[in-house]
Amino acid sequence: MASSEANERPRLISAMELVGAGGYDKLQIKKIPYREPNSDEVVIRVKFAGLNFADLMRRQGLYSPAPKFPYVPGFEASGVVEAIGSNVSQLAVGDRVVAFAGDGMWADLVTLSNDRCFKMPDNMSFEDGAALLVNYITAYHILFEFGNLRPNKSVLIHMAAGGVGIAAIQLCKTVKNVTVFGTASGSKHNIIKEAGCTHPIDYHTEDYVAEIRKISPNGIDIIMDPLNGEDSVRGYNLLKPLGRIIYFGAANVAASGENRSLFTAFKTWYKCFSTNSLSILSDNKSIAGYHLGYLLKYFDSGKEIALETIDELFRLYNEGAIKPQIDSIYPLSKVGEAMQRMHNRQNIGKILLQPDDEANATKNNDTTTE
Amino acid sequence: MASSEANERPRLISAMELVGAGGYDKLQIKKIPYREPNSDEVVIRVKFAGLNFADLMRRQGLYSPAPKFPYVPGFEASGVVEAIGSNVSQLAVGDRVVAFAGDGMWADLVTLSNDRCFKMPDNMSFEDGAALLVNYITAYHILFEFGNLRPNKSVLIHMAAGGVGIAAIQLCKTVKNVTVFGTASGSKHNIIKEAGCTHPIDYHTEDYVAEIRKISPNGIDIIMDPLNGEDSVRGYNLLKPLGRIIYFGAANVAASGENRSLFTAFKTWYKCFSTNSLSILSDNKSIAGYHLGYLLKYFDSGKEIALETIDELFRLYNEGAIKPQIDSIYPLSKVGEAMQRMHNRQNIGKILLQPDDEANATKNNDTTTE
């Protein structure tokens, strides 16, 4: 589009908007105005964006922080820098970057602060870049900050075949002699075993607590719990002395249907683990809450922690120690289907979204010889 | 005493008994029967025993686990092996040892399981040995297990001039560039500064939260809280993102008088920090409870953790990285005075107790030229 034309009518971009809390019909592709970068911002042409469980929770109206409706969701993306503000020096047009923010990534062009964008390692694909940030930062902070993972420890990973789950398994394998228990349905056990899970457990057919006690009678050192509700109590009780459980979600709150269920939410709340500074005294255990969204949104020092972690993750990627498992790629317009796949826990690893123009271009490139 | 005489009437030892919950009059020196070691036990002639805040809580009836009255308190001691059971091979008569157990150390002879006794490094004094185990294991587990202390972190240590406090300061200094905030009354600031405390704060004249915010506006990475009650909430709120607070006592519960105050206890409970697995989710913080007594009493793996830690502490002692600060030594018969000193928070470092015969012998050695 010539710039003379752009001056006559506002330039529009394609974006997926969440227009309210509810079912998949609340997600609508819209044409919205392009926003020029201010002096500290950059514009990225999105190659791929990540789908996260938090996006499903937000759609059901069960997740904060969230902007007011309507807004463009999307925490993370990979892409190419298309324009930069006058103050931006560490990025240039044409740079391949990954980016993350509180929202806004499900669009073909994204205008955002330059400090949310990071140059990708040269050998990283756009798919891997879009799959890396949220899942691996989450798993890294849980395992190495709160979890204090060191050699010879045992770790329980719920939803082990999901994006965070596979990231966590791979990160566990960077430490000597870590025993990884992972829950996933039986059909996914081969994949999580290949990733490094020592003991896959099918939560459909087995009681994970009983199975773990058979192998490790004293319990587990570190538990990653994205489920909450009654699992939060079962996990706490399963901890070894000096063990740590890190709550980082409430998947049990999310209704399996399209809309939220207040009954499911209430049951999760009612059954969740409660304690206080006196009653925890004699337990020799630790609980933690982890939430990447709040970490970045409300704390200046949250950003610093994330920056250090991204450096470390790029290093591990370059060494071949970690590699995102991509489950599937959907065009943005099919985000409902992508969400249903995640809700049904059919995915193995990361689900990516692709702007429809990019998806069509990829298709055309596949079928033409130009 | 000749052994022929011992055969005629039971051999008696001197011990300090706690005969009930209450004031100092509940602590009484008694002659109790000597117990021969069974095949796995050893007998130690006690040189020094440690006094811990938990002993004060127990006397007030505020601490569990505790045996039934009457019993001989005392968690730790140093001494010399005087007899061994038939199965004991790793210790010999004459060995210099440190020992710890759930109770029983406040006596001139102690019969206990050999696996609670550890040969002291050759260059360790009996005073240092008796001052080491409870305080340094506690500080070590809190800082390095739950706290995940690493370079460039900040630590808040309450009661920084106490036994655990000084141990913790010294352990912080074994890690690069750790900023240590310590609360203690002004008269003790020189000592804790010498030990390595970066910012001593006088809790009598200053609001520690306000003082810390002035220096470190984002808060603290690791807080060691032996106070509980309203301090448990203030500490939680003072944590940085991904910060950790470890509760390991409830000094605020202990009445400053001789007897427990139910009002003080209730106030501490009422004001203590409460959370659950859902409300902690968005906080990006961790809470932990630490209790060495339960760690050793109820968990097989607790012992293993302690053994590894003792090895590490002996190594640090031999390197000169840690060295117990001995506040004072009281004869066992004056334990009430020793407790009052601790209750008034007059001590700087560890208070030790010495069996009266040993104390008298020391005195005689000091005044004779034999």
Could you say what the CATH topology of the largest domain in chain A is called?
Quinone Oxidoreductase, Chain A, domain 1
Q: Give the percentage of residues in beta strands of chain A.
A: 15-25%
CATH superfamily of the largest domain in chain A: Medium-chain alcohol dehydrogenases, catalytic domain
Shape of chain A: globular
Distance between the termini of chain A: 21 Å
CATH class label of the largest domain in chain A: Alpha Beta
This entry's quaternary arrangement is homodimer
Whole-number count of domains of chain A? 2
CATH structural architecture of the largest domain in chain A? Alpha-Beta Complex
Bin the helical content of chain A: 25-40%
The structural class of chain A is: alpha/beta
Characterize the structure shown:
2 copies of one chain form a homodimer. The first copy, chain A, starts with a helix and ends with a helix. By secondary structure, chain A is of the alpha/beta class. In chain A, the strands form 3 sheets. In chain A, strands 3, 4, 5, 6, 7, 15 and 16 form a 7-stranded mixed beta sheet that branches. In chain A, helix 11 (335-343) links the parallel strand 15 and strand 16. The mean pLDDT of chain A is 91. Chain A is globular and about 70 Å long. Chain A has 2 domains: 12-132 and 326-362, Quinone Oxidoreductase, Chain A, domain 1 (Alpha-Beta Complex), CATH 3.90.180.10; 147-289, Rossmann fold. Chain A has helices at residues 3-8, 53-59, 126-146, 163-172, 189-195, 208-215, 230-237, 262-271, 292-298, 300-318, 335-343, 356-367; strands spanning 12-18, 27-33, 41-50, 76-84, 96-100, 109-113, 117-119, 154-157, 179-183, 199-201, 220-225, 239-247, 274-276, 285-289, 326-331, 350-354. Chain A is built from 12 helices and 16 strands. Chains A and B meet through helix 3, helix 7, strand 12, strand 13 and strand 14 of A and helix 3, helix 7, strand 12, strand 13 and strand 14 of B. Strand 13 of chain A pairs antiparallel with strand 13 of chain B, so a sheet runs across the interface. Chains A, B: This is Enoyl reductase (ER) domain-containing protein.
